[in-house]
Amino acid sequence: MLVPLYEAVYERLDVGPGTRLLALGCGSGLALLMAASRGAAALTGVEPSSPERLALARERLLPKEPRPRTRGARGEGGGIHLTDRLPGDPAGPGTRAYDLVTAFEPIGCRAGDADGLGGLLAATAPLVARGRPVVLVGWGPPERCATSAVLRVAAKLADPLRGGTVRLRPALRDDLEEVAGRAGLKPDGSGRVACPFGYADVESALKGLLSTGLFDAAVAATDQAQVDKELTEALHPYRRPDGTVWMPNVFRYLIARTP
């Protein structure tokens, strides 16, 4: 669903041959795959929170069986590395550090995610060349993000008394700048990108939204049937006459520079 965001950022920052990219929270690896298709020289994906997504990224980017390779993707021993923790020296003695860091997972969906990202960004400082771009992402204004209303189901069902971890609040204009500032980064431009979430039907929408992990605490606090029921009701305003589900969203990205 965030492909338009990835494309906009890569186009703006001229990601291509020679780019050495460090992706924080790389998830299942789609953004890395797109960078590889642009010819990026070296790619490192870090996914600390979900072994399942990291496994999917490995399957997607590092297939065991030989197949025609995407330009720029050279396997675990070449241009692509996937890990659950920050790497050490990104390329070995005598070679340059990463020249782009991305954190494409939007902040604001989990308790403390902004603080956690700030700490992770600060820890990347020794790995990134000076003055290089770091990209942070957040939700746009609530009135322009239909999915934020649907995600509130997770917050309602997994409330603090039930040990929930989802805390949604309206996105603030300077959220990303605050995270960058705490990490010692200097803001250097921003942009907004329309990223509609579209699904073939309600069943597909349920599967897609539940796969994010944002509803796990709600399922634990209630049960799967209750979450499915309330999520289906929340999706009702976004159903089209043909049965498809369409939720317009806008995401904001910030480009900051390393000191």
Automatic annotation (TrEMBL):
GO terms for biological process: methylation. Residues 58-68 have a biased composition (Basic and acidic residues). InterPro entries: SAM-dependent_MTases_sf. Keywords: Methyltransferase, Transferase. Residues 58-92 are annotated as: Disordered. One of its GO terms (molecular function) is methyltransferase activity. This is SAM-dependent methyltransferase. It comes from Streptomyces rishiriensis.
